[in-house]
Design goal:
The complex is a heterodimer. Chain A is mostly beta strands. Helix content of chain A is 0%, strand content 50%. Chain A is built from no helices and eleven strands. In chain A, a hairpin with a 6-residue loop joins strand 4 and strand 5. The model of chain A has no long low-confidence stretch (mean pLDDT 92). Chain B has strands at residues 9-14, 19-24, 31-37, 44-50, 55-58, 61-66, 71-76, 85-92, 101-103, 107-112. In chain B, the strands form two sheets. In chain B, strands 1, 3, 4, 8, 9 and 10 form a six-stranded mixed beta sheet that branches. A four-stranded antiparallel beta sheet of chain B has the order 2-7-6-5, with no helix packed on it. In chain B, a hairpin with an 8-residue loop joins strand 8 (85-92) and strand 9. Chain B starts with 8 loop residues before the first strand and ends with a strand. The chains are: A mainly beta, B mainly beta. Chain A binds chain B through residues 4, 31, 33, 42-45, 48, 50, 55-56, 58, 90, 92, 94, 96-108, and chain B through 30-31, 33, 40-45, 48, 50, 88, 90, 92-95, 97-106.
Chain lengths: 114, 113
């Protein structure tokens, strides 16, 4: 059974609309992350959360808002969608400690903005 | 080798051959992670090498790290068809930002029978 559940797996959205990507992890980790992978760029770090607190944000746009309702949940709300937002968004988790953390990734949510 | 603005590299080899993938990085790191990504799946860690290690082995995998040249390599011995995947190296800024890995563009490895 997958230990990191991402929903939906695929979605198509209209430019200007808003979508929420869901992520739940059942690995007992206290840190969760969002990464983005597109055809144009390598896998990129977006956000990190630990104990439901935002630790780092490397996303320039405020249109991307992570939301953590529970320790093992980290959703990603994207507003005013643009075609350039088309990408696969990966949720990941790990123990929160110094270097060498193994990140466990979900299977991704593939977003296409038309 | 993979990094920066380089395109995704591709390698195609026959089953049973050995293969080495290279990675160079630009910023300080305490650890180099190697991940593999199968089609339609998320990346999965296969081997991790720390700055105080020059070589790390795990089954048919061997990773090396040269901090002086800021480069790492991943070798697969006697490749099998199931090794077909995209392989990424990633650097870890350690205590500066936990969990923030910087990934290379990857090497797409195709192993054919």
């Amino acid at each position: 059974d997958p230990k990191i559940i991402q929903k939906p797996k695929y979605l198509v959205a209209v430019t200007g609309s808003e979508k929420i990507l869901i992520c739940e992890q059942y690995l007992g980790h206290n840190a969760m992350y969002w990464y983005r992978q597109s055809a144009k760029k390598p896998l990129e770090f977006m956000f990190s959360y630990s104990y439901q607190k935002l630790m780092d944000n490397q996303t320039a746009s405020s249109r991307f808002q992570p939301q953590s309702s529970k320790k093992n949940h980290l959703d990603l709300q994207i507003t005013a969608l643009k075609p350039d937002d088309s990408a696969t968004y990966f949720c990941a988790s790990s123990h929160y400690r110094n270097s060498g953390n193994t990140l466990y990734f979900g299977e991704g949510s593939r977003l296409i903005v038309v | 080798s993979q990094w920066g603005e380089e395109n995704l590299q591709a390698l195609s080899i026959q089953e049973g051959e050995d293969v080495t993938m290279n990675c160079s990085y630009k910023t300080y790191t305490t650890v180099v992670h190697w991940y593999r990504q199968d089609s339609g799946r998320g990346p999965a860690l296969i081997i991790l090498i720390r700055s105080n290690e020059r070589e790390k082995r795990s089954g048919r995998l061997r990773a090396t790290l040269d901090t002086s040249s800021q480069s790492s390599s991943l070798s697969i011995t006697a490749a099998q068809c199931e090794d077909t995947a995209v392989y990424f190296c990633a650097t870890d800024r350690g205590t500066q930002v936990v969990g923030q890995l910087t990934f290379g563009r990857g090497t797409r490895l195709q192993v054919y029978a």
